[in-house]
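@channel sequence for tomorrow's demo:
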Amino acid sequence: MLPTSILAATFGLLVASSLQAGVQIRFIEGAPKDRFVLTNVGTCQVEASNVKIDLSQSAGRLIFDVTEKGAGVEVFQPLEFVEGADALRQLPSVMDGQNTIELEIASLAAGDTLAFTIDVDDTTGQREITVTGSEIEGATVSYSDADETRTATFSSDALVHVTTKDC
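structure tokens (generated this afternoon):
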């Protein structure tokens, strides 16, 4: 029988390895712009895939506020890519009040990041302008390629990790 320390180290290595395949999305509350950062945390290039961020099941019933008039409150910010836009097949469009965005990834190398800013508002009437991690909790991210679709849920830490297939 192996000593406990070796078993623990082996288990930790297996967990760390399994977390290496996939994409991670972090939501960062900001004023006046909120930010989504998608990072390829795997060791493989992500190619010909779609990533869909769906806020409809979020605790705060979040929406994108991209125009002065519409579903959002006070401050608005249109969608703006600040890093990695060249990884996309095309730039997505977002309508005011929409609660999903789809990113069509052409190619994103291991370790590379795709980031965009936009205004996200809460529609429950509690903290409409400022969105906390607990308000995005429950929102989902789906990763689809030619073979499969995998979905994961944002935690209260405003973070989600979607595993992808190995290279």
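heads up for whoever presents: The first strand starts at residue 22 and ends at 28.
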